[in-house]
User: Which sequence fits this backbone?
């Protein structure tokens, strides 16, 4: 199957005013442009070690950690749409990704309660990685892809979903696959290595090669094929850069 790129108006993340405030925003939003807070997103493949990273930084004072709302995806009025998607992506992919886009929007727009918010993935990777993979693999029709993309563009243009730093846990698909098998989550038991390879390729295109969509905020890449003890050392080594993302501008 041949797929033509549908760029629409994507790739505007973090453009314009730093912090995402725009003409017509509330006084509170305009004051936020003064950078009294930071949003950091931990990105990576399935089983790349995002939970370990979040657990490590959750021990730090003045950091709000938001994990992916997986429990919501597993129980929509009693329906596990995450599990349904893995069983039949062609039927349930659009349903799951529509709900993920909504719940991740809720994550981004929650009132800040700490100077630093650290999120597990983002509304951006939901679109640029997982929606893109469904479309490329032929499991999402073009019309569904276009509708979801136009909604995503509207969100970017009308709400503040900006990010100050992406921490990319770069993990080989083979390592992710071994970790995935060890943790034995019910929905993940049927995920093949090929799926992880496809997700890895999209992350590389987006955050390393910059051939997928524009990335307009700093990206810190951390090799994450190591065991937990070594990864904790890496998080400690990169602690200052992670918690002070504006310093990253001088390292890229």
Assistant:
């Amino acid at each position: 199957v041949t797929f033509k790129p549908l760029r629409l108006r994507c790739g505007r993340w973090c453009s314009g005013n730093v912090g995402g405030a725009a003409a017509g925003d509330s006084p509170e939003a305009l004051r936020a442009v003064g950078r009294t807070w930071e949003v950091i997103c931990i990105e990576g493949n399935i089983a790349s070690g995002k939970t370990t990273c979040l657990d490590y930084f959750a021990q730090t004072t003045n950091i709000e950690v938001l994990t992916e709302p997986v429990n919501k995806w597993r129980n929509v009025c009693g329906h596990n749409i995450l599990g349904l998607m893995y069983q039949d992506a062609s039927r349930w992919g659009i349903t799951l990704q529509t709900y993920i886009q909504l719940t991740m929007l809720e994550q981004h727009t929650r009132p800040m309660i700490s100077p630093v918010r650290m999120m597990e993935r983002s509304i951006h990777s939901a679109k640029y990685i997982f929606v893109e993979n469904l479309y490329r693999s032929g499991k999402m029709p073009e019309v569904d892809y276009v509708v979801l993309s136009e909604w995503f563009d509207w969100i970017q243009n009308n709400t503040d979903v900006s990010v100050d730093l992406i921490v990319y846990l770069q993990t080989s698909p083979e390592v992710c696959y071994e970790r995935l098998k060890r943790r034995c989550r019910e929905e993940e038991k049927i995920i093949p290595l090929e799926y992880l390879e496809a997700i890895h390729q999209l992350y590389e295109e987006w955050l390393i090669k910059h051939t997928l969509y524009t990335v307009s905020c700093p990206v810190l890449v951390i090799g994450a094929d190591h065991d937990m003890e070594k990864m904790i050392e890496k998080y400690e080594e990169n602690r200052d850069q992670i918690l002070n993302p504006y310093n990253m501008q001088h390292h890229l």
About this structure: The two ends are 37 Å apart (CA to CA). The first strand starts at residue 38 and ends at 44.
